[in-house]
Amino acid sequence: MVSNPVQTGLKICCIGAGYVGGPTMAMMALKCPEVTVMIVDISVPRIAAWNSDELPIYEPGLDKVVKACRGKNLFFSTEVDQGIRDADIIFVAVNTPTKKVGMGAGRAADLTYWELAARRIASVAETPKVVVEKSTVPIKTAEAISAVLHGAGKTRFDVLSNPEFLAEGTAMTDLDNPDRVLIGGNMNESGNAAVAKLADVYAHWVPRERILTTNVWSSELSKLVANSFLAQRVSSINAVSAICEASGADVDEVARAVGMDSRIGSKFLKASVGFGGSCFQKDILNLVYLCQSMGLADVAEYFHSVVTMNDRQKERFVSRIIHGLFNTVTGKRIALLGFAFKKDTGDTRESASIEICRRLIEERASVCIYDPKVEADQIWMDLTAATKLDKTEVQKYVTLCDSAYEAALGAHALAIATEWDEFKTLDYDKIQEDMVKPSFVFDGRNVLDHGALRELGYIVYAIGKPLDPKLNTSINC
Ligand SMILES: NC(=O)C1=CN([C@@H]2O[C@H](COP(=O)(O)OP(=O)(O)OC[C@H]3O[C@@H](n4cnc5c(N)ncnc54)[C@H](O)[C@@H]3O)[C@@H](O)[C@H]2O)C=CC1
Ligand SMILES: O=C(O)[C@H]1O[C@H](OP(=O)(O)OP(=O)(O)OC[C@H]2O[C@@H](n3ccc(=O)[nH]c3=O)[C@H](O)[C@@H]2O)[C@H](O)[C@@H](O)[C@@H]1O
User: Fold this and answer.
1) Which of 3, 88, 276, 452 is the most exposed place for a label (fewest CB within 10 A)?
2) Distance, CA of 294 to CA of 225 (rounded, Å)
3) What is the atom index within ligand 1 of the atom nearest the CA of 21?
4) Which residues catalyse the reaction (predicted)?
5) Catalytic residue among 13, 14, 244, 279
């Protein structure tokens, strides 16, 4: 345990009680019992859920931490102004989605929520504050935000960049034991003091050598670059998966051999149906837009290819299903196992399952979806948005099921889209009894025992693995 230099009675407010605001502040409250942490949000149902037994997000270990601190030094409220007024340090962890309309639509970050939060801070703050960018934002956002904050001319603000690197599903362990904490500040006296103040909070549990301090722009850019590099690795291994299928090599063997080179490393080399999640695509597109704005067209194109490859991987998976099922899936029942963008989360933002499902609907398949954590309403919302059909139309093609077994009843194929652990231990013998023959498995995550499935009689396609001789591969995907 590191020494505790934080002033007693320090008050922290976080604007935005989402996947980042909730877990990061809960961990901070746990590690800094003498600090008061208030999380505020404009969403009344979200705050009500944070104050209930059913938290609004599923994240392993979160429940325990929230219940240990809530009502002691951790509070959830819709009183945004009060939270701002009382705080010494204000984190802003609001959403920064890709812009849908106007200049930069489809690429640039939409900073509307950030600006609204900043204007609220400017109008109600009466004493100097340290304002911390927790959301992922384009470079130079701190500068713009500082201008908005100081526009009201009421008090002084120091704006810091402190990007978050947690991954969903492992958020609590990532926060407890981060590879690094990055803090960017202005290189002047008050900037340095603000950086030191925030570093002291993290030093409650993060070793000092892992708390990196830098200037604001380097910090803002590092976050976009980190996500782009991680996504680039996934697209690279997915590109390799296509070579493996065409050549008979095994993507997991290639990843193992390549990853043992300590300069490359073994993480993020798992071939899949394509990466999802709220941030990879958004942050790459944001970087692409920045590059284009700076006249760096070739750099923009380089990073954009990561997204292109990801889109191609999702389409490749769908094509394998269609060609595998004798070139048509019209009227055929397909059990789609997994709707979350990865295991151990109920989050579906940019999940590959959405696009896979949209394409299968387009092909007039009958899709039966099972996911252990995703709410039914969320699936209907995602599919109506993706297909631009109303719910009744979508329901002509899609059924939601309470188990993988139910989804597989009468199905021609199982398609694994999320690597939930429970899919590894299903009784595939029993499942096959209730499926149409020949029964197919399309393993988009390489989590199943393909040899065992083939022994049971399944025809199996697995991403980046030597192709099953019984699979229709007349068309290369
Ligand atoms: N989801 C993740 O795993 C990670 C997300 N990030 C970044 O963190 C930011 C937040 O992401 P999430 O937590 O996933 O978003 P989210 O959508 O789950 O949560 C954002 C919250 O902010 C609230 N909000 C928006 N405007 C507000 C305002 N003016 N006043 C008060 N509350 C307001 C919304 O009601 C919502 O509850 C994004 O910039 C994202 O790129 C960074 C690292 C990881
Ligand atoms: O800025 C963010 O939002 C976060 O984005 C990612 O975290 P997250 O999206 O929650 O989850 P990841 O574990 O990175 O997975 C992203 C996607 O890539 C896929 N993936 C990941 C790794 C891999 O080897 N193969 C692969 O297909 C996952 O299944 C998932 O769909 C980063 O890992 C975090 O560091 C970052 O803070």
Assistant:
1) 3
2) 16
3) 13
4) 279 (nucleophile)
5) 279
How far apart, in Å, are the Cα atoms of 445 and each of 337, 364, 400? 11, 24, 21
Any atom of ligand 2 within 6 Å of the Cβ of 164 = yes
The per-residue b/e assignment along 217-251, b for 16 or more CB within 10 angstroms, e otherwise, is eebbbbbbebbbebbbbbbbbbbbbbebbeeebbb
Domain-wise residue ranges, the chain: 11-206, 220-476
Work out the number of other CB atoms within 10 angstroms of the CB of residue 397: 18
N- to C-terminal Cα separation, the chain: 53
Ligand nearest to the CA of 225: 2
Between the alpha carbon of residue 60 and those of residues 57, 95, 190, 324, 373, the distances in Å are 10, 22, 38, 37, 12
* Residue 279 appears among annotated catalytic residues: yes
Ligand 1 binding pocket includes 16 (Cβ within 6 Å): yes
Residue 377 backbone dihedrals phi, psi, to 5 degrees: -55, -40
| Token pair recorded at residue 323 | 């060609």
271 is in an annotated binding site: yes
**Taking every pair of C-alpha atoms in the chain, what is the biggest distance, in angstroms?**
74
Asked if 221 contacts 161 with a C-beta cutoff of 8 angstroms, the reply is no
ipTM value greater than 0.95: yes
Is 11-206 a CATH 3.40.50.720 domain? yes
Ligand nearest to the CA of 114: 1
Q: Is residue 407 within 8 Å of residue 368, measured between CB atoms?
A: yes
Q: Phi/psi of residue 15, each to 5°?
A: -95, 115
The answer to pTM > 0.90 is yes
Q: From the CB of 217, is ligand 1 less than 6 Å away?
A: no
Rounded to an integer, what distance in angstroms lies between the CA atom of residue 185 and that of residue 158?
8
pLDDT digits (tens, 9 = 90+) for 283-316: 999 999 999 999 999 999 999 999 999 999 999 9
Among 3.40.50.1970, 3.30.40.10, 3.40.50.720, 3.30.450.20, name the CATH number for the domain at 220-476: 3.40.50.720
| Strands, sheet with 129-133, edge to edge from the N-terminal-most edge strand | 74-77, 36-40, 11-15, 89-92, 129-133, 157-161, 181-185, 211-215
DSSP per residue, 115-164: HHHHHHHHHH--S-EEEEE-S---TTHHHHHHHHHHHT-SS-EEEEE---
> Is residue 224 a known part of a binding site?
yes
Q: Report whether 202 belongs to an annotated binding site.
A: no
Burial of residue 297 (CB within 10 Å: 0-12, 13-18, 19+) is: exposed
CA dihedral 119, 122, 123, 126 (to 10 degrees): 160
